[in-house]
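User: Sequence in, structure out. Go.
Assistant: Echoing your sequence, followed by the structure tokens.
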Amino acid sequence: MKNASQSCFACPFNALLKTAFAAVSLLPMSAGAQTCLTGADMESGVRTALEASARRFFDMAARGDSAALKQNAVPSLARDFAAVDAALKDNRADLTGANATVRPPFLLTAEGSESLVRAEFLCGVFGPSGQTRDSAVFVLNNLPPGKYAVTIIDATGGEKPLTLTLVLEQLAADWKLAGFYARSQRAFGHDRTWFEQQAHDLRSKSQNHNAWLYYREAMALASPVDFMNTQATDKLYDELQSVQPADMPTNGHSVDLSSGGKTWHWTAIFPLAVGNDLEVVVKYSAADISNTGKTFEENVQVIKAVVAKFPELKSAFSGVVARAVAPNGEDYGSLLPMKDIK
């Protein structure tokens, strides 16, 4: 099952983009070979050019004009454009007829002669407690030297409100498309504030596992892309940490799940909004998934074991999806509605 609320792909960065969660209490806007200018800091002509480019690319996306976007993309993206096509298709209803509001852009400069293994950009003013209302932190892995921009667009008027983040790269005098990220502003029909409030309520009821999962959804909705941190995401991360469970897989650490004399290597758990349902997904390692009938039975056992161990999940989610993950990364998933889990 795929979360259609976000579409992303490898930009010329050629690596996964990673979020730095810790709040930064630094005042300068530069960090070594990386500098960042907010919209208020940059020259007006540069800001105008970035906003105009963002609107132009948005108009292409709203028309579903994949060919025009590809023609205006950096070479590394243009060579592998399938993910952009998929993103346009997945978000067509939200983009068609939508109006664009462009937020103040960020201008990122990566200096040097070699790619930066971890490029961290501190944008705007930071205070003694870390980020402020208009600041942001971007963390990009294996970033080639160059001048980039992050432009964020709030799209309204389509089927659902959408945030479209476009990463641009300056090639000669032109700004080219280097990254395309679409994320719904709602999940399960609700915005970030709703999930945050629900997490607070769940925590007050000592349902810390449910609260932790709801905080994760709130964090996903609080930032338009996973490689950007703001004051809001830092606050949510602190709250998430306060209820982080030790008996669920977190931060890449797996746990063993046992039931009926069997033990599974449980690797991940996260919420997933699908239409009007909010489900919880659990992933576990499997030696072989080629026999789908047998894998389905295994998935059902895992689902029942998870719900038996954490019965509070019944009150917060409509169903559980178990995904058996083979050594080659392929997986096979099965969904059970919560009402059918005995």
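User: And one key feature?
Assistant: The chain has three domains: 6-184, 192-242, 255-340.
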